[in-house]
Structures are given as structure tokens and as C-alpha cells.
């Protein structure tokens, strides 16, 4: 069973068409709220191009939470569309428009339209670390082994 928090959302594109859905869960138990592109005109993403795409909303997350902006797998597999900074981080104290940094990793141009669901947003609890400086760290079997040291 999922737990919920209430989050304030502000529509930023009301004086345009007012037709864009706010971020929403497409099925009852999914993790991410799908986010629509608040484009005024079609946007052609050439192969390799990066574009910051507006979403038409701002939000106020409660302190102690963050939102992660993650790619949609369908767009990635079918069209090569990724998010250059995935997962993007929306801080609890950010009040500006949420924007999505898309990249076309495919070989073909991709045209995005107003209202296309371009990303998904997952709300997460945040732990902040208190930095405790020490002279040595506790031993482990792994020690400093990493980057494939256990083999393929
Ligand atoms: O995909 C993203 C990532 C970030 N942001 C906004 C919300 C976030 O709170 C703010 C700062 O993001 P981040 O900390 O990742 O960027 P920065 O380069 O460290 O900027 P800053 O110095 O403003 O923290 O930008 C977005 O709208 N979309
Ligand atoms: Mg930052």
C-alpha cells in the first residue's frame, strides 16, 4: 500500500490554453507522475540535441522530500529520448518552473508536441548527512574493491 503526502502545485500556463494536465499517476500504484510538455509550438529534437522543456507548473515540496525527474522507458526505447541529468533533482525549496532536460540519443529527429508526456516525477524522502570526520573507516570484506572486482 502506498503512503501519500499533499503537495502544492501552481499552474504557470493558465493564460495560454489551460489544457495541460498537471503531473498525474497513470495507474493506481505507479511510482512516477507523468509530466507533460508545456510547449507553445512543436519542438524538433535533432540527434544529439539537448533542450530544456517547460512543464507549465511549479511546486512546493514539504521540507524533507525531493522529486526525481526520470525518463519514460517507452520514449527511450522507441525514440531514443533520454534525460541528460537523469535523475533530475527538484529540491524542496525550489519554487521555479520544473523543466526537463531532454536529449535525443537516437539516430532520427524526434518531434515533441504540446501535452506529450515527456518524463515522470517520483517523490522521495530525503536523508541529509551530518558529516562526521574520522581517522579510519571500519573494515569490510570488500574493502576498496569495486568497479567489477567481483568479475563479470
Ligand atoms: O531536471 C531538473 C533539475 C533541476 N531543476 C530545478 C529544480 C532544482 O531544485 C533546481 C536546481 O537543480 P540542481 O541542484 O540539479 O542544479 P544545480 O546546477 O546544482 O543548480 P543550483 O546551483 O541552483 O542548485 O533546478 C529542474 O527544474 N529540472
Ligand atoms: Mg544544486
TrEMBL record:
What's the domain of life for this entry?
Answer: Bacteria
UniProt cofactor(s): Mg(2+)
What GO terms are given for molecular function? dUTP diphosphatase activity; magnesium ion binding
Question: Its pathway?
Answer: Pyrimidine metabolism; dUMP biosynthesis; dUMP from dCTP (dUTP route): step 2/2
Mind listing the UniProt keywords for this protein, alphabetically? Hydrolase, Magnesium, Metal-binding, Nucleotide metabolism
What GO biological process terms are annotated to this protein in UniProt?
dUMP biosynthetic process; dUTP catabolic process
Q: What Pfam families does the entry give?
A: dUTPase
Q: PANTHER family under this entry?
A: DEOXYURIDINE 5'-TRIPHOSPHATE NUCLEOTIDOHYDROLASE
Specify the protein name.
Deoxyuridine 5'-triphosphate nucleotidohydrolase
- Give the organism the record lists: Desulfosarcina ovata subsp. ovata
The organism's taxonomy opens as:
Bacteria, Pseudomonadati, Thermodesulfobacteriota, Desulfobacteria, Desulfobacterales
What is the gene called?
A: dut
